[in-house]
Design goal:
Layout (H helix, E strand, L loop, with lengths): L23 H14 L12 H8 L3 H13 L3 E4 L3 E4 L4 H4 L2 H4 L5 H25 L2 H20 L4 H14 L3 H21 L6 H16 L3 H20 L6
Antiparallel strand pairs: 1-2
Helix pairs in contact: 1-3, 2-3, 6-8, 6-9, 6-10, 6-11, 7-8, 7-10, 8-9, 10-11
Length: 246
């Protein structure tokens, strides 16, 4: 039997809380996801009815309705005719969909994602070293050149960073692993835009990517995996200094 949220209208410590007025539907979706991830709304539980949810969130009924429909389309909740909305049991395949990842904002989620990225991309680098063709290597070189140019101009490098890592993933020759890498990069691109300034040391960043490239170009799978691991460990350390910004 689905669990109801207990007396949320009279227990402020369990209420979802009001939503800021900017980007109302997006913020409403984010707030509902925070409630689900935070355990206020657990898998299998029934959401408050639309009127009560609108009051808790402090938004219009239209915003609440659109947010609920978006979560239904993302397969995060179910709409059961005549019974309301229920939180779905999480599934790994749904959790890594880019559009779901992009709505997640909690620091602990990003920390876990960076850990998963390290495990995944080490293996991608090793596979790329065994399978990369000239077209793959050319794509990596183009991304490196773009990164160098962006640093020199004082411009953001995220576009080239993402392009380099996706070129490595494509060179690995496994479409399922490429899909995972693409989903993670979509989320990280969104998060980096929110953070604004990422504490990069230009030469160190370029050197680490060049080390990955050289190992792949030399067909040295072990060195490629090690170079990728060093780079991503550094990224995780940098993130620790930015957690309070999320």
């Amino acid at each position: 039997m689905a669990l109801e949220l207990p007396d949320q209208t009279v227990r402020p410590e369990t209420a979802i809380g009001p939503v800021a007025r900017s980007t109302l539907v997006d913020r409403t979706v984010e707030r509902l996801l925070e409630a689900i991830h935070g355990g206020i709304l657990v898998p299998g539980s029934k959401l408050p009815n639309e009127q009560e949810l609108t009051a808790q969130l402090g938004v219009s009924r239209t915003a609440t309705r659109e947010a609920l429909q978006r979560l239904v389309s993302l397969e995060v909740i179910d709409a059961r005719h005549g019974h309301g909305y229920f939180v779905r049991t999480p599934e790994a395949a749904r959790a890594i969909r880019p559009e779901v990842l992009a709505l997640s904002t909690r620091p602990e989620e990003l920390a876990e994602l960076l850990e998963a990225r390290t495990v995944l991309e080490k293996e991608l680098a090793a596979l790329a070293a065994r399978r990369a063709g000239e077209a793959h290597l050319a794509a990596m070189r183009a991304a490196l050149d773009g990164m160098v140019g962006a640093f020199a101009a004082g411009a953001p490098t995220t576009e080239y960073d993402v392009a380099f890592h996706l070129a490595v993933a494509e060179a690995a020759g496994n479409r399922f692993l490429l899909g995972l890498a693409d989903a993670i990069s979509t989320y990280l691109r969104t998060m980096r835009a929110r953070l604004g300034t990422w504490p990069n040391t230009p030469q160190d960043t370029v050197t680490m990517h060049q080390d990955i490239y050289q190992a792949i170009a030399s067909s040295d799978a072990e060195s490629a995996a090690a170079a990728m691991a060093r780079h991503l460990r550094r990224t995780r350390v940098q993130f620790q200094h930015l957690r309070e910004c999320l």
